[in-house]
Amino acid sequence: MASAQTTPTLSNIRTGLHTDYNRIVLDMSGLPAEYRLREVSGVSDCGSGNPVSMPGSNEILEVVMFGAAAHDDNGNPTYTGPRNFTPPNLNNVRRVALTCDFEAVLTVAVGYTNTSSWHRVFTLTNPNRVVIDIGL
Questions:
Q1: CA angle 108, 100, 80 (to 5 degrees)
Q2: Beta strands 34-40 and 21-28: pairing type?
Q3: Which of 42, 77, 98, 100 could form an SS bridge with 83, CB 3.0 to 4.6 Å?
Q4: pTM for this entry
Q5: What is the CATH code of the structural domain delimited by 10-135?
Q6: Contacts of 124 (CB under 8 A, 6+ apart)
Q7: How confident is the model at residue 5 (pLDDT cuts 50, 70, 90)?
């Protein structure tokens, strides 16, 4: 008998330009148990420790989600998109990078140019998603 996926998983990363902010949406199968955010000067891959390039970014917001993954219980990726990319058509966010997917810890870094930008992170349901807004 197959067991149900125990950890909420990432399936897609979407971006959008709004009047006053840039939005990054993490589509999830469920919501993380907890998340924390912090501004950092650089990010690294949690597996290798190697620095992750965030070109064009003057600021980096790191969002760490506990109880979330980008792979299923069998190790198969649930998110198959790019792990480090320049989002199209955004005027402040320059980079989005998936920097960690290990032991139910999923980390996404968002690099942006305006050092005076505000940010907010929240969750929504139906469908489940983590939303990251970066002000202009």
A1: 80
A2: unpaired
A3: 98
A4: 0.94
A5: 2.60.40.3500
A6: 131
A7: low
